[in-house]
TrEMBL record:
HIT domain boundaries: 14-124
A single MF term (Gene Ontology): catalytic activity
Pfam families: HIT
Top-rank taxon: Bacteria
InterPro entries: Histidine_triad_CS, Histidine_triad_HIT, HIT-like, HIT-like_sf
UniProt motif (Histidine triad motif) ranges: 108-112
Protein name according to UniProt: Histidine triad nucleotide-binding protein
SUPFAM superfamilies xrefs: HIT-like
Active site: H110 (tele-amp-histidine intermediate)
Organism lineage: Bacteria, Pseudomonadati, Pseudomonadota, Alphaproteobacteria, Acetobacterales
Length: 125
C-alpha cells in the first residue's frame, strides 16, 4: 500500500538490508515476528527500534494489511523488548513516524522505544 509519499515497499531500504543480514545491527531481540535493535543515533539513553519481519512501509500499511497474527506478534514483541530492557517500572515512550508530516526517514514500519531517563514533553514545538 502506498501512503503519504512513501511509495510501494522498497526491498533496498536500510531496515530490509538489516533483516537480510546485509548490514549489521546491535540486536536486542528477535523472533518470528519482529527484530529489535539499538538506533544508530540514539535520542535517549535507551533508544531501540522494533521492526516487523514483513515488508510494510509504514504503520498505515502494517495496520491495514498485516495479518492478525503478525500484528499480535509484533505488538507482544514490543512489550517484551521493553521488559527485557528493564523499562517497565520507570516507564518508556513508544513512537512511530508515519509519512511525510512525521518525518519518516526509513520506509519500513518501525516503532521507536525510548527510555532510561525522564523523557520530557511529548512534542517539542
Ligand atoms: P524515522 O525517522 O522514524 O524513519 O527513524 C529512522 C531511525 O532509523 C532514525 O532514528 C535513525 O537514527 C535510525 N537508523 C538509520 N539507519 C540505521 C541503522 N543502520 N541502524 C540503526 N538505526 C538506524
Amino acid at each position: 500500500m502506498a501512503v503519504s509519499g512513501l511509495g510501494p515497499y522498497d526491498p533496498q531500504n536500510i531496515f530490509a538490508k538489516i533483516l537480510r543480514g546485509e548490514i549489521p545491527c546491535r540486536t536486542v531481540f528477535e523472533n518470528t515476528f519482529a527484530l529489535a535493535f539499538h538506533d544508530i543515533a540514539p535520542k535517549a539513553p535507551v533508544h531501540v527500534l522494533v521492526i516487523p519481519k514483513g515488508p510494510y512501509v509504514s504503520f498505515a500499511d502494517f495496520s491495514t494489511t498485516a495479518s492478525d497474527a503478525e500484528i499480535a506478534g509484533f505488538t507482544r514483541a514490543v512489550g517484551h523488548v521493553a521488559s527485557l530492557l528493564g523499562l517497565d517500572e520507570a516507564g518508556y515512550r513508544l513512537l512511530s513516524n508515519m509519512g511525510a508530516a512525521a518525518g519518516q526517514e526509513v520506509p519500513h514500519f518501525h516503532v521507536h522505544l525510548f527510555g532510561g531517563a525522564a523523557l520530557g514533553p511529548m512534542l517539542h514545538r
